[in-house]
Amino acid sequence: MQSNFITMDFQYTLLILLLPFLSFLVLGICGKWLSHKVAGLIGTFTLGAVAVMSYYTAFVYFTADRLADGTFATFVPYNFEWLPFYIGNLHFDMGIMLDPITVMMLIVISTVSLMVHIYSFGYMHGERGFQRYYAFLSLFTMSMLGLVVATNIFQMYMFWELVGVCSYLLIGFYYTTAPAVSASKKAFIVTRFADLGFLVGILVFGYYTGSFSFDFTESATYAVGALHGVAPDCAKAVAAGGFILPTALFLMFLGGAGKSAMFPLHIWLPDAMEGPTPVSALIHAATMVVAGVFQVARMFPLWIQYAPETLHYVAWIGAFTAFYAAAVACAQSDIKRVLAFSTISQIAFMMVALGVCIPGHEATIDNHGSLGYMASMYHLFTHAMFKATLFLCAGCIIHAVHSNEMSAMGGMRKYMPVTNWTFLIATLAISGIPPFSGFFSKDEILAASFNYSPIMGWIMTGIAAMTAFYMFRVYFGIFWGTENKEYHEELRHHGHFGEAPLVMTAPLVFLTLFTVFMGWTLPGGFGAYVSATGTEYTIHLDPQIAITSVVIALVSIGLATYIYKGSSQPVAERMKATFPNLHQWAYHRFYIDEVYQFVTHRIIFAYISRPIAWFDRHIVDGTLNGLADGAHYIGEKIRPLQSGRVQQYAYVFFLGIVILFFILLI
Amino acid sequence: MNLDYSQFLVMREELSLLAVILILFVADLLFCPDKKSGKGIYNSPLPVILLSVMTLCNLIPCCGATDAEAFGGMYQYTPMMTIVKSVLNVGTLIVFLMANKWLSRPENLVKQGEFYMVTLFTLLGMYLMISSGHFLMFFIGLELASIPMCALVAFDKYRYESAEAAAKYILLALFSSALLLYGLSFIYGASGTLYFKDMFSQLPGDSLLTLVGMVLFISGMGFKISLVPFHLWTADTYEGAPTVVTAYLSVISKGAAAFVMLIVLGKVFDTAALVNEWRILLFWIIVASITLANLFAIRQTNLKRFMAFSAISQAGYLVLAIMPASAQGMTSLVYYLLVYLVANFGVFAVINVVEQNSGKLGISDYNGLYETNPKLAFLMTLSLFSLAGIPPFAGFFSKFFVFMAAFQEAKLLVFIALVNTIVSLYYYLLIVKAMYISKNDTPIASFRSDNYSRAALLLCTAGVVLLGIVGSVYTYIDGFSYIPSL
Question: CB–CB of A650 and B171 under 8 A?
Fold first, then answer.
């Protein structure tokens, strides 16, 4: 009774989805009659309401009593059959499911989205298409929320695609500029290509297990009237072939790898920076790109139980991506590009954390072997906050200097103190310096990696050190280093040079508060809310790992300070000169984009597409044209049948009966 | 023996329709518009409201209704029939909405009461036909549905085409009725009964009498549904009849007849040998209907004539759902009817407003409609897409379900039908092309359509867009369907 009562309490969660959607409809349809201010306020206030509801949900959910086995109950306030499949008992459901990671994601999405909504007031001020911008933001928020509250993998897939569409629309927001258009197409095609794997995975999974539901143990509490989910029958899939579940899960992971920009599907994310910077903060840093991580986490019980070996592929793909992206980030000069590669690297950290989980006794989950699950979700949470801060700071700077290139900056700390401090704190957090939140989550990831294998542990520690280096490189490049005095003088001459307005700096400060406090003031530690088994898990800081990582990070920071802080940078110049090839390769992102270009243009277009196009134009079209011409010709020939004479009609009528009768007799 | 009057309750749908007709009759007498001033209060939403209320009242009790029969089995009732009648009602409602503008013309103002009553009388005939459990009852229903229909076709009686269409229609209707009746006499001769429920035990499957009766029955129904080769009246009648009546003729009478055909074929001609025989007949009829109608449709220049051939082809798909004689087939037939209804009325609603506002009916007149009336062009495109069966519109799903139901019994036929959908796509797109791409020096001028037509268009478009997406509609209908032989 108790739990049923609480489920009733969560009925309002439907509004969390509906409000942004309504806001999208209103802004999308009536946008052109609304002033910028009204449109922005509609979007922002809706999001405010969503944020309040999300926080309330989190409060009620996490303060409710735990179940007898020490986990938080999973609630399903809504679930109804949307489309039956007519094969077995499969059907597509739509609903809302609340469990610890969903509630955590609600907080992340609504917080970052609200901050971006507020921030955009300043950043997008006076832009053309302001209303359209807010409409898309609302649609995006709705889709992302729908993705995390999904009760089954098919609903997740639908919202997953919607999220992709929103990303496409927002990257191509400045649709009159060529780079934005090609970047949006690139993002859409690459992720869509990966989603094919996801869809095939879903279908294989559904076919063999007979269910799409996320309620793997049928232990969720359903509200009155909600359709009960059927647990996937994994035993049946295993009986049909031991490789089926690993294959299905890995195919789903391919979709996740596309969205979360894992190597080699990462190529769209750096280009996605063509969109407005707040969008980069919201979509391409904090929320959408972690969808892949969220998906793996969602299917985690199945991964660990039925495909632990395949899970380790995820870990190694993640580790390589983390290293690759960190290496590229060290050589970029466009600050958004550095942040983009840092995002790829950090998401790869989360993937690694999930991948290094090992099953406990008898292939069950335990909190020690699956420490990485908790670490991954923790890092997802902290990273979303500080990466959003970093991007919004970058937005402030770009807003001030009208350029993404570091050469146009330098010495900005004098002009933009708030941005300077918030950027610094976020940089310290991403570098893993206590007491900021990034330290705690990254430390757990490293502990999980060492738990899996020392090699992985050391690799990840090394990449963490690279993170500290390139982040401080960009920090010094922007705020210290060589100042481009002439350019700044010219900007000041035109006015508008200096600290961003309050509407832009306030979100920075708010997000920084999360970064400062989420590490050490969270009551009970993060493990009290999210853990692999769902039971309470106390985080122990392993002093050996913690001290090592902090020391290495500090060394890297020291190195970066030595090289990049001064107003002239002889060391950096000399390094560039000593290793010209390495720098060139890293600067050009190891030519992965060129490889793609080569494969698509030279091989696929020339040897596959062109013959198919020829076949289509001459054989397929030719056949159909022939059919159409033939039909036309016959139509002309049989026209006299329709003469308009009633006698003849009756005659044909009677003749028809006679013919039918003869058909029967034959 | 005393008559058990509670039996009348089983007939509440027919009785309530009769009540609506009587109310309209009295209202017509009392509030008939003044001939001189041309003004009247009758041209009000009264018929629309009454019919809506009646539809709603009949829809609700069907949740708990069970199978019943009355008057010794002459009248039979299953909840599925309520569904079919409700679908027909909704269609008639849309026709009434469409008709408003046409009826408020000066020459029609006086006789508009007739239109509503005569239309409802044909509807009553279809009701009786659907619920009949006896061949005489069925025949009376059939005639009640077709004779007033002739009056409707001739509604613009001073217009030459309208009168001609009505003459052709009544002549051929009589011809087919006579043959049908002749066939019924054969069936009676073979079995000695006219009750559906007794028939299948008493009808000899191998008798020539039965076969002749069956062929004549199918041809009579084929006339009503306008299947090839009994279709020749269709194009002339559709072209000559007032557009609103054409719309009514193309969906409502067709749908009712198809459903009855399913019931009778499944129930009466139910022995294994006979099922095989009528499947062969239907096979050729369907192939001929779909293919020939498609070939004719490509060449048409008049939109109403075009829609006549489109309707013949669609009727072929509708009858395809009869082939399996299963519960699934029944569901898909009713669902197809519903989806076809909204899509076809969507097209006719546009044709009608355009005709009322500009008097134009040629396909080439529609060139450049998008430039002048973009919304109408768009709505018509949606409906045409649905008719052609393009996802995600409802037409795709309805065709899909019909194919799925028929696939087990008629694989080859489903394949032929599939190929024909491609041809149909071609000619439906011709209209879309005319509206969007073709240039026109004198396009139809922009106009503002009346509110009744707008309501009709809204209903149709909502149906076209939503019926496919909201999967529960099909499931809901499926809950009531049954194997017709039971």
Answer: yes
pLDDT-based confidence at residue B33 (cuts at 50, 70, 90): low
Residue of B nearest to A80 (CA): B472
Closest CA to B221 of B155, B297, B153, B278: B278
Buried-exposed string A223-240: b where 16+ CB fall within 10 A, e elsewhere = beebbebbbbebeebbee
Residues 6+ apart with CB under 8 A from B11: B70, B75, B77, B131
Q: How far apart are CA B217 and CA B139, in angstroms?
A: 11
Cβ A281 vs Cβ A395: under 8 Å = yes
- Residue B87 domain boundaries: 11-478
Tell me, yes or no, whether B249 lies in a domain: yes
Contact between A97 and A57 under an 8 Å Cβ cutoff? The reply is: no
**Cβ atoms within 10 Å, residue A40:** 23
CA distance A536 to A374: 11
Answer yes or no: do B229 and A659 touch at CB < 8 A.
yes
Three-point CA angle A393, A395, A400, nearest 5°: 100
Q: State the pLDDT at residue A526.
A: 81
Q: Tell whether A648 is within 8 A of chain B (Cβ).
A: yes
Q: What is the pTM of this model?
A: 0.66
Structurally, chain B folds into a number of domains equal to 1
pLDDT digits (tens, 9 = 90+) for A340-356: 999 999 999 999 999 88
B163 touches chain A (CB under 8 A): no
Assigned domain for B2 exists: no
Nearest-CB residue to A653 (from B229, B277, B285): B229
Amino acid present at B79:
P
- pLDDT band at residue A1 under the 50/70/90 scheme: very low
Which contacts qualify for A38-42: CB closer than 8 Å, 24 or more apart?
A39/A130, A39/A131, A39/A134, A39/A135, A40/A117, A40/A120, A40/A121, A40/A130, A40/A134, A42/A134
Do residue A635 and residue B295 have CB atoms under 8 angstroms apart?
yes
Residue B4 lies in a domain: no
Asked if residue B141 belongs to a domain, the reply is yes
Q: How far apart are CA B453 and CA B112, in angstroms?
A: 17
Q: What is the DSSP letter of B32?
A: P
List of residues 6+ apart from A251 with CB closer than 8 A: A197, A198, A200, A201, A204
- Best of B177, B209, B295, B420 to substitute, by most chain A Cβ atoms within 10 angstroms, is B295
Using alpha carbons, select from A402, A112, A54 the residue that is nearest to residue A278. Answer: A112
The sheet with strand A91-98 has its strands ordered as: A91-98, A75-84, A221-222
What's the rounded Cα separation, in Å, for the pair B147 and B165? Answer: 14
ipTM of the complex: 0.85
